[in-house]
């Protein structure tokens, strides 16, 4: 079989297929560089600072005492003096090892050394000076854990854990889930540096991706190039782990500098050079023989898929020294890093393909599995052209004799398309239908990735510090997602990304108590997505040249064909090229006045998104509808999607022609923060922030505005009013941005996003603090553009009589008329016969309220324990509603639970009427134009010339989160670091409608809710060997054997997410029976063998509640809603998916080479217990034989045990 490789053409994606994209990216990057340097080096808002109070031995404040803060690695000194109240604050410091000294006339100097200042930390160092000469010095070693100086809640992942914990993919973002209240939704195999792991981060019920991501204190968000999202977008730059110093996960941010999120913030700090040269060279390698096989492959006795991965790089930092020219010690420092990734990760797809004899029309071997009798039974193919009423008056079809479709009925286009399927190559899964899972193929994921970082830090003088950084990464990836290669492939061929980022910062000291900080950061991110290979000729399948002409560039791709019955799809949706630009600037000032440390600034951002060749093209979908016995009710004993397609019919499909776009958004947020040290025990953190988050604007006004519900549509004059239920007139029409007096933005600028922040810390004693806070934040908002008119969609018409008879065979020309984009030129005539949507013009920014109260206690010198109650409330969450819904009374007339009958809507007298829109030109390309009849209930809509009309961002959603969170930390000298967290939580959602027609509001457990979460992480340097506690004087040979061993481990447990039933299923009750002990048998929900029933039409036209599964004894846990039935209010069933647990281990051996040079050999094991996790969710289709089970044959959702060998040379 042809396997994917990264060809030279793929590697040149940016240079050839995306050459215009590349030029645009370079142009935009140069613009950003110019802006950055014209702004004289933007600055990072460093949240790290020392604060404290200087008193004499009696506790009296000492004013104008001199404070010196010295970085012990770079020797850079920052000085200030105390205020009249004896207080001081030294902000804008980089994380690192410091000493802090205080001196005053008539007192001895006091120096605190060995103080580790972590990212985002406000460290409190108090002084009690004793009378004496200033030349006398009292030195205090401060290597113990420091109590918090602010009410913020979070977790610092320090450099030891970043460098020593086993990281799958060496992505530091994989550690984001180590804080209490934080969860990562990414699978272990999706933790690579380029996987946008942060987009799956949820903090304290705020939702995935709704967090502020900072790098060196500045926004690291790249504007999304593919589409606007209601979350913070893709990440800009991910530095190699070797260049990361540490980072902090701030789960309850009460500092006003943080915003544009509903959750928390992550602030990552990169390494800065010191006066000593430091660096590393490393290689991580994976090979097939090191890995365990998947559960699925073991079950089928298949070998371990081949895997290779090489990740290598280097990092170097130190002073800038040019021999005989320049000595940069104490002044100029550099950091360089490079990383390269090349991998072929295993992947196996088990799916279904048609049996070869079916392609001749012969379905005589077609059977299905009957779980009631636990046996295989014939599955009958019915002729869609034979619909008739049986003796009881029920409409049914006749079967094909012998279950064989005559050759004359086989559609040539269907035969050509189906010929691209491979033949089955494995036995179907026992207990499922005879064709299910009959094809298995490797689908390796091939990746190439490069990353480069260069950083300069300059200490110009005691008053000025400057930092500059450039970062770059790119990746290319190929993988088949439907198990096929060549023209019908769907996947990534390739998926390519490139990021360029430039950052600068400048800190200036005007006076000891007045400091200025300015920053700018520019990011350009390019995405190229080719879902299938281009260069295909669609006419080779038998489609006409007129169809290819109407498709334009999309005719170069194999059309997307979706089959029911679990058959793998054919074809793809084309490609997309996109660019996202972002520019962030942040001027700020810090003023120390008395007991106040006041920070004020402006967070200003510009985001731009441009897309070209947006994915779309031609699609068809087919199921068993046309070959089942009843045209209204499906059953496992009749019909097949391949048979339906062979007859030249389809259930649906569309041709989508999408426009290029260029959208921009501006964001302004002034803020003020006051850290007020009321007493030596009590500190208040008071802040306020004001967001002006402007709505996005499309540069060329290529977007819709609102749906005007009052206007009489111009098409009214062409419609016979006698065919309308109310005689007309036809109202409603779509409007457009930037024309006819309409605004250019999707919604009005929100001007009341004021965000008060409050935090406090109260020191109960020297080891215990009480802390808490409350804050309001506003989420990033960026609704996607609605572009009816500028885009065009042509629907496939499957039937003119409500599904009784097909329009086919018509695959030879399934889209005789293709709607072309018309822009805003048609005015109110746009999207007739279709379902447009629009954004609520009075949209409000979702508001997030976060609060906490807790206690922090230090048991021993290096032990810390923290217990918090944490909560959040989110208001104005996004929701949507159909303003053109069919009236509830019309549905009730067809709902058997309300005394109605589906025939009243489907096939009974009056259910179909003359179509008033038939052959009226503005409806071309829709069923309204081509069908002479129309379902009568469609004309009961408020705006019958349209289908569903959704209004988005209605702001009536709400969520609430409550949790108990525990964090514990222990450190033993340099030898042992252990962190542990526990979270007990619940997240609820409400808002919107579970059923829009029946106006049933939704309220349920959040889909990402988990009850219990545990993390354990630690690094243990065994205290054995030369210079250690044990064997400190052993000889070097013995030390090489038993010294230098290190063990690091990371464990995560999370209870299961809720099992969400589909909207057509009602949950009634629960029953408990033991789980299967045989691991090859799928486990049922809570050990239940689910009992479901559905309403089945009887020969006399009545409906009877009939069990789907056997042995239910008349007791049903689930009921399938009848057609036109109402969705129940509370979707959550009380049933949860299985929990997950994962243990990763790193065993290292360090060898001393020379002086500071050492070699580290690493053995990293991911999923060390080799425990399979099946979190694909329970089958939620109650008519499936596997309903309520996890089909283990489809494979585990985590990776099997994987072993990685590594070597590091460090100095």
TrEMBL record:
Protein origin, superkingdom: Bacteria
Organism encoding this protein: Granulicella mallensis (strain ATCC BAA-1857 / DSM 23137 / MP5ACTX8)
Gene Ontology BP term (one): siderophore transmembrane transport
Spans annotated as Disordered: 1179-1199
Location, primary (coarse class): membrane
Keyword tags: Cell outer membrane, Membrane, Receptor, Transmembrane, Transmembrane beta strand, Transmembrane helix, Transport
Membrane topology: Multi-pass membrane protein
Membrane-crossing segments per the record: 29-47
Entry's localization field: Cell outer membrane
InterPro entries the record matches: Beta-barrel_TonB_sf, CarboxyPept-like_regulatory, Oar-like_b-barrel, TonB-dep_rcpt-like
Protein name: TonB-dependent receptor plug
A Pfam family per the record: CarboxypepD_reg
GO cellular component, one term: cell outer membrane
Domain (TonB-dependent transporter Oar-like beta-barrel): residue spans on this chain: 270-1204
GO molecular function, one term: siderophore uptake transmembrane transporter activity
